[in-house]
Amino acid sequence: GEGSVPPQGGDTVAEALRRNVAAITAARGVISINHPNFGWAMSAADLNGGQGAHLLEIHNGHFMVNNAGGGGYSSVEALWDSMLSAGIRIFGVASDDMHQLKQPWAKAAARPGQGWVVVRAPALTADAVLAALASGDFYASTGVELSDVQATAQRLTVTVKEQSFARYTIQFIGQGGRVLKEAVASPAQYDMAGGEGYVRARIVDSNGQIAWTQPVFVPAR
């Protein structure tokens, strides 16, 4: 897609989301719903209006975006599970939301290097990267690196690019955000039983850094 899409507006958050998704879809753009907990802007019910978007920002490196939720509000990762559990096909991205390049950085600074994605693409071109994002052929991270992710309808396998100083926990998560299996050895795999709805992996290291793979949607058997 080319050009810009102006804000479409709407009487409710869900309606504004629906209208913006429709307009960007018409412009053939890759659609990302960013930092839903910034200003507590979007609830799980609001986000259902985002059906048709490709991406949901599940980690944002800005210090005021409330990634973890709290005080009665869901984490952004839980909002993602809510969308996935409602049958909405959407992939999770991480970003810096970088505003400050001047060093030294304060702890509360919107600085680079705090969230990114790694795509599987045949060439280092904008089109190939956008296609991988739109199809979910990538993982998101705040610091954990993966050397491989293999996803089929039968199995999800994750291989961690391990650092010598860290330990890793690999969680396979399904419908409702439930942890289906936990492993500490890489590569780790989860075999689909059927009925999970979806299965995604969350890899947490011993310093609190995380990588997230995209959901594999599991048909009921």
Structural summary, described in words:
With 221 residues, the protein is an alpha+beta fold. Helices cover 17% and strands 29% of the residues. The chain has four helices and 13 strands. The protein has helices spanning 13-26, 44-47, 76-85, 126-135, and strands spanning 32-33, 55-60, 91-95, 116-119, 138-141, 146-151, 155-160, 168-174, 178-183, 188-191, 197-205, 210-212, 216-218. The strands form three sheets. Strands 4, 5, 8, 9, 11, 12 and 13 form a seven-stranded antiparallel β-sheet that branches. Strands 1-2-3 form a three-stranded parallel β-sheet, with helices on both faces. The radius of gyration is 17 Å and the shape is globular. The termini are far apart. The mean pLDDT is 95.
Essential attributes:
221 residues, alpha+beta, seven-stranded antiparallel sheet, three-stranded parallel sheet, 17% helix, 29% strand
Explain the layout of strands and helices.
Blueprint: H1 13-26, E1 32-33, H2 44-47, E2 55-60, H3 76-85, E3 91-95, E4 116-119, H4 126-135, E5 138-141, E6 146-151, E7 155-160, E8 168-174, E9 178-183, E10 188-191, E11 197-205, E12 210-212, E13 216-218
Parallel strand pairs: 1-2, 2-3
Antiparallel strand pairs: 4-5, 5-12, 6-7, 7-10, 8-9, 8-11, 11-12, 11-13
